Structure formats: structure tokens, C-alpha cells
Amino acid sequence: MAEFWNLIILNPMLNVLIALSALLFNSFGLAIMALTVIVRVVLLPLTLKQTKSTKAMQELQPKIQELQKKHGKNREKMQQEMGQLYKEAGINPLGCIWPMLVQLPVWIALYQSIMRALATTPENLLSLAFHVYSWPVVVQSIPVSSQFLWLNLGENGDLILAIIVGGTMWVQQKMTTAPSADPKQKSTSSMMLLMMPVMFAMFTLMFPSGLALFWVVSNIIGIAVQYKVMGWGYLRIRPASQPTKVGGK
Amino acid sequence: MKHVKILFLVIFFFLSLNLVSCVPGGVEPAQGWSGVACYDGMLYVGSMDSKIVKVDPTTPSIEWSYTIASAPSQGMLSCGRTSALAAIYGTPVPTEDLVYVGAYNGKVYALNRDTGYERWIYPKEGYIGPIVANTVVDGDNAIYVSSSDGRVYALNTSYGEFRWSSEPLSEKLWTTLTIKDDIIYLSTYENNIYTLSTKNGNLLPRTFKADAGFSSSPIIYQDTLFVGSFDNNLYAIKVGSDGLLWKFPGGRWFWSTPVSKDNIVYAGCLDGKVYAINAETGDLEWEFDTGSPIVSSPVLDADLLIVASESGDVYVFDTNIESNDEVMVPVRTMSINAVIKGSLCVQEGIIYVRAQDNYLYALDIEKGLVTWSIPVSGKKES
């Protein structure tokens, strides 16, 4: 299984990443950014499907909130009504999860490629020998340079990068998080809105900066795609008590 | 309910990241692959749990062990119990009264060879960048070491006083330097062979530049420098003229340091083969496929060539035997059933190797058997 994974997914991605660094002025930072863009472009149909599904779910929010008010204490009835609502709107509530699951192996391979190419320990460098092709453009770039801007891509704990990762993730999430009139739900969604960015900012401090660079680029592209599909969404300041239909720019 | 979902998401993501970084195909922590040094009937080796150990092979038992300090933390999400310890990649270098070794915590240690007591540590405070290469002790009471900060350091052997450090020569220096006629020869990952003066560390004008970085440490034999490269070639470079004599292609990187004798260079390759190459022409004399990558450097003992493969097989070749159609057959094959990455040593017909299971093995060449093995997690702290 591991060999199949390496042969079909990891090795091609790793070698393209290293080759890109050679083509982009021997900058591994630029290579990470370029490959993230390429992967996001390839996965764009899935991302769009996921975003559209999320948007459709959001458009149903006012109706869902009405149902919650109406059947708040009767969970069974509420589930039934919500199922009916999804059916009428032609929405699969899991529609935004499947594209995400399909993308997961690609993100894992990209993560592994970045970590392997950086070869932060002698063991990693040694194991790189069994993953790289003998393309001249690849062998001439090994090991990749880990210096990029002010960062050492192989080292952990850059505070500025952590703030950028957290910030971009917050923006991306804020665009799709509907405000709620219910104070209980409001506090839950506010917490969730903060939790993921804070968590990823913490990961940035724990993982090599190369991975955080990938998160930043990925977040920015995610923001751009969401903007294209649903405008700034809930990023625009609105009165929280008036749930609004999401739409155009 | 929503809180539970959030908590589930957080735990799921945290575990996923940790799993991805720990499963095969993920990222390995620094664990070290220290080799064994034979000196005056005794053995000196670095363990997987950050100890320098002296072993008496006659009993066999640990005479003393010295625990080196932990490495600076590399983050919370790392795998393996040794990731927080200071890994030892270099083989200890025993001399008349001291044993020297550099560690991944960025310090060089000099220990009393009899007692294991610490004589000096350089630097006393802080560190100079993780050390992966072997330390090299040369005449004039000097010890030289290359560091991950890209510099070469020269220290006094007796008390570790700083002599000089070179300018940064590479993003990181993980290869061992070699010295000939007061000149240091150093291979780098940035395609260069540098030469430095042992007196002051100044760069000398003779520099060789290749198309790819160098994966192995260099050796010099009969005024020729031999070194492996990331482009899967073994390079032969004429010392002095800095001209390329020949390149020999392997199936993968030549990672281990080659050895040479009687005009033949013996090089282990990560493609699993050991190659015997004519030192003058670069022509293949013979090869042998071990079937597993060769990470550990081959060793010569009189007329015997000893090669260990990563899978734990140890092969003994008689260099006097003529090869049959460029294929050589080992005179002995032994197996320890453990991963071998560190260099081995030979003393009185016994091969000593420390495997990645943290055991030290003794293999009798004559009998073709493993005679004993002991764990090198030291017990007697010095």
C-alpha cells in the first residue's frame, strides 16, 4: 500500500516540487507556492462544488432558523422538516464533505512532499534517495535550499507566519460563517470561527515553515475562490440579528 | 452537541497531522547512526539514546557510558522516543587519552578514554549547529568538525579552545572532511569541493564545481579525490589540478564514504551494489548486489573488504580473488537481522557493528557467525 502511494502520488508530486524549485530560481519557497496553486487549480472543480454546496446550505439558513424556532424542543420533528427542506431545495447536506474527502489524499501527499523535500534531518535526506527521479533538473537541485525571504522553511516557530496563517484562515471561515440570532448558537459559531485559525496558528509554530507557507497560499486561493462564488459573504459587517441571504458581490 | 463536534474536529485534525508525520512515508526524526571505533582492544560507540559507550569486547561488557545533553526542541509533533534526545551520527574518535565525538545538539565532546569523564565540551554555552559528520583529529593537536551552520571549526585537542572557524561554506555541512598535506578537503551539498588551510580556515583557490551536490564524504587516494554525488555518480577528481578524471554511474546515490587499496576504489551505493572501480580509469572491476541499500561505509582489513547492507547482512570479500566476469562472490556472508547504517570496525578478525536496534554485534569472520551482541544503553554512568 505504501509503495503504491509513493509510486502513484507522493513521488510524482515530490519530484515536480523539486523540479519547480530549480525552475523558479532555486527557491523552494516559490516552488511550494507554485505547486499549491497548481494543485488548487487541478482541484478547482471539486472546490467549486464544495463552495457552491456550502453557499446553498447558507441560503437555507433563514429557513433552518425558522424551523429551529418552531421545533426547537422536538428534535425528531426538526430533523424530518430539515430533511424535507433539503430535499425540496435539491441539496445533499453531505455535498460539501465528499469533495473535501476526495481532496484529502492530495493534501496529504503535498504535505509529505514538502516535508520530504526539505530533508530537515539526515534520515530524511537519506530516504529522499528512494523517492527522487534521476531527472537532471531534480538531481541538480538536491537538497533544496530552505531559505526563503526571512524564513528557514525547515525550522519551526515563525510568529509572523503564524499570524498570517491564522488571519487568512479566519477571513476564509468568516466569509462562510452565518451569524445567528440565537445567543447560544452565536457563541458556538464565534468560538468555532476562532478555534480553527488559532489551532492552525499553533501548528505553524510546531511545524516547519514550509508547511505553513503552503497553508497561507492555500488559504488565499480559498478566499479567492469563495469570493468568486459568493462574494465577501459574511465578512461584511451586518447586524447579527438580521440573517441575510448570501449572494453577489 | 456542536461543542462536541468542534472538539471532534480538532482532535481528528491533530491526530491526522501526527499520523501523517509518523506513518511510513512520513517524516523521520533525527535518531542517529553512530558507527563503532576500535582502538587498543576496546570499542567506542554512540548509542541511540544519546550515550557514548566504551565496551570491552573480551567480556563483553560496558566499561563506561556518558550521556550527552538533549538537543534543542524541534516542535511538539514529532515521533519516536529519541526525537527529543541528542542524536549521534558521528563515529567516536579515540586517541591516546581522549575520545572525541560531535553530536546533533551542536556540541563537540572530549571524554577521558579510560574513565569516560568529560574533559571538555565545545561550546560550553549554546551550540554551533547540529553535527552529523565525524570529527577529524589531525597532527598539531587540532580537531576539525563541520557543522550544520555551514562552517568548519578547528579546536585544540587538549582543552577544546577555539582556533578558527571558516566562513559559511554551505547551507549545512553534513559530510566529513578529509585532510592531506595541511589542506582540508570538503564536499558540500551545493556542488562544491572546497579546500581550506588547516592553519586558519581560509579558503584556498583550488575549488571543484560539479553539476550536482555531493552526497558522500570525500577520500583522497594517490592524489585523487573520490566522492559520491546526488547525480548517482562517483567522481574522481585530480587533487591539485582540480580536474575531473572520471565519473562512474551507480543506480542511486553513493552515500557512504568509499575506501581504496591497490589502485581499486570500493564504493557502496544506495542501489544495493558494492562497486570495485579502477582508480585510474574509472572502469568497473567487479560488482556485487547485496539487494539492500548500502548506507554504512565499507571497511578494509588487510586483504579483506567488509560491506554491510542496510538490511543487516554483512559481506566479506577477499580483494585478492579475481572476479568472474565483473561479478564477485563474498567469502563470508553473515546476518544480524537488524538495520545497519553506521560504520563498522574490525579488530583481530572480529567485525563490530552497532545496528539501529541499539545493539552492538560482534561477528567472527573466520567462523562466519555472530559471536555476541549486547545492548549499548549504558548502565555504568561515568
Low-pLDDT residue spans of chain B? 74-84
Structural class, judged by helices and strands of chain A? Answer: mainly alpha
Strand content of chain B: 35-45%
Number of domains of chain A: 1
Strand order of the largest sheet of chain B: 1-2-3-4
| Number of distinct beta strands of chain B | 32
Could you name the ranges of chain A where pLDDT drops below 50 across 5 or more consecutive residues? 241-249
Helical proportion of chain A, percent range: over 70%
| Oligomer class | heterodimer
The radius of gyration computed from the alpha-carbon positions of chain A, rounded to a whole number of angstroms, is 21 Å
Summed up:
Chain A contains eleven helices and two strands.
Q: What does this protein structure show overall?
A:
The complex is a heterodimer of chains A (249) and B (382). Chain A has 249 residues and is mostly helical. Chain A has one domain. Chain A contains eleven helices and two strands. Chain A has helices at 2-23, 28-42, 44-59, 61-71, 75-89, 98-118, 122-128, 136-139, 159-176, 183-206, 209-230, and strands at residues 147-148, 151-152. In chain A, strands 1-2 form a two-stranded antiparallel ribbon. In chain A, a hairpin with a 2-residue loop joins strand 1 (147-148) and strand 2 (151-152). The longest helix of chain A has 24 residues, at 183-206. Chain B is mostly beta strands. Chain B has a domain at 1-29. Chain B contains one helix and 32 strands. Chain B has one helix at residues 2-22; strands at 36-39, 42-46, 51-56, 61-67, 93-94, 98-102, 108-112, 118-122, 136-138, 142-146, 152-156, 162-165, 178-180, 183-187, 192-197, 208-209, 219-221, 224-228, 233-238, 244-249, 259-261, 264-268, 273-278, 284-289, 299-301, 304-308, 313-318, 332-335, 345-347, 350-354, 359-364, 369-375. Chain B has a four-stranded antiparallel sheet, with no helix packed on it. In chain B, strand 18 and strand 19 (233-238) form a beta hairpin. The longest helix of chain B is centred in the N-terminal third of the chain and has 21 residues, at 2-22. Chain B is globular.
